[in-house]
Amino acid sequence: MSADVVDSRRRRFLTGAVTVVGGVGGLCTAWPFASAWQPSERARAIGAPIEIDISKLEPGAMLTEAWQGKPVWILSRTSEALDSVSALDGAVRDPDSSEEQQPDYARNRFRSRRPDILVLVGLCTHLGCSPQHVRVEQASYFGLADWRGGFFCPCHGSLFDYAGRVFKGVPAPTNLVVPPHQYLSDTVLLIGEDSREVA
Length: 199
Hints:
Blueprint: H1 3-36, H2 41-47, E1 50-53, E2 62-67, E3 70-76, H3 79-86, E4 117-121, E5 132-134, E6 150-153, E7 158-160, E8 181-183, E9 188-191
């Protein structure tokens, strides 16, 4: 065997070994950079859908849950609250929910899948303050003849009815936002997703 043949084999072996070691080293170096571009577990959890048990939600009561870093209200409306919604079409800015603050299934007078349960993002559409829930029996303190309760934003005085519809003449430009949601059962609500197949 000549010296040229031995050198050629060694050269190929060494070239292959250096290529493999260099490739592995390149992957090990690139891995931390590539993984840094992925959202963290915490970030994924913030945007993930949440399940809420509403079995103990009494009529007139409201739950507040966090979803995507925002407060989400789940309100059990009384028959009196529902009657007040029906009577206010002329006083609210967008009575038919023409603006895009709700999924199609909530584009109705009550802005909900079920008339008795209202699901809203609890942020005013004016500057993002958090309005207060005002019960039907508390509404008279505000001195407004038409308003029978709902939501009041103390920052700039915006009023919303029991469907989250904004009144005419207040700073908030649009109705409160209805997030995507669905019922997994009569007592379990899923916020953040409305396309999951229900078994």
